[in-house]
Amino acid sequence: MLSRTADHLFWMARYMERAESTARILDVTYRLSLLPQNGEDVKAMWDGLLKIMELQDAFLARHPVFSTEAVLEFMIFDRDNPGSIYRCLRASRENAHAVRGTLTSELWETSNASWLKMRDFTLAKLMESGPEAFFEWVKYRSHLSRGVTIGTMLQDEALRFIRLGTFLERADNTARILEVKYLNLLPGAEDDTHSSDYYQWSALLHSVSAFEVYRKVYRDQITPMRVAELLILRADMPRSLARCLKEVHTNLSRVANARSAETERLAGELESHLHFGRIERIFERGMRKYLEDFRDCIFDLGCRISDDFLIPATA
After folding, report:
1. Cβ(96)–Cβ(42) under 8 Å?
2. Nearest CA to 187 among 36, 40, 39, 288?
3. Of 111-120, 141-150, 182-191, 273-282, which gets the smallest average pLDDT?
4. Is the C or the N end of the chain the one with fewer CB within 10 Å?
5. What angle do CA 201, 203, 204 make, to 5 degrees?
6. Under 8 Å CB-to-CB from 20, ≥6 apart: which residues?
7. What percentage of the chain's residues is helix, strand, coil (to nearest 5)?
8. Given this model, what pLDDT does residue 192 score?
9. 8-state DSSP, 311
């Protein structure tokens, strides 16, 4: 497959997954911001989200006065913010258009329709009815895109690069969602199973569609350690880090070329660490440090995939 085609397919999938993940992280933070608390706590919560998304400086440059509405506008509609849902859906559609001949007509129409509908939303409409419905719409369009992809695309290299983009992006963003929560814990509280409110942890589980899964797996009260274990080490949990790396490694092996042996090895090594890992050891090391290091590994893996298969980034 041509590098240019693989590049468009890879980023088409990454941007769609990024839009969904942004909707999920905004949804859980917005829900938590509605809990009884003072204004400084709410501000710290949104600050933590912007910091982990690496968009704090960009936000402050555009919005010197902080508010929940300003964060939502910046993260959903800002056309100059490369991480906004607006920009992600537009970029996904542009990449799909560039390789329209490689996609099925159903997949192209799904991507195009999502972008056209996105242009009809405004912040005023969202705040009038509550932004939760919009977040659900974004998640639904991403689910639809994945379903159409699996249901209509040939099982060839094109599909493998789409899946690579999806799961690499999902791994990064699941780590970010967890990191937002742990960033808001008091120092030394991350290993205290009684330190967090039930609603906060259940909201986090709902944000990654894992609440019912948690109940089925553990059949007990929600605790920070079990939430972390589910979202990091359980390979049967669709959005866990372990599942994402399993999919990344599998799809990498299907498109391997003469240059990609080291990239495939590193992906396998990271998958192995998650497969054989123990949550107690991760907590001993420190959850925030672990998640930061994991995201660094994912970034490095993405750069290596670009060097081995895609169009090299230009300065």
Report:
1. no
2. 288
3. 182-191
4. C
5. 65
6. 138, 139, 142, 143
7. 75, 0, 25
8. 45
9. P
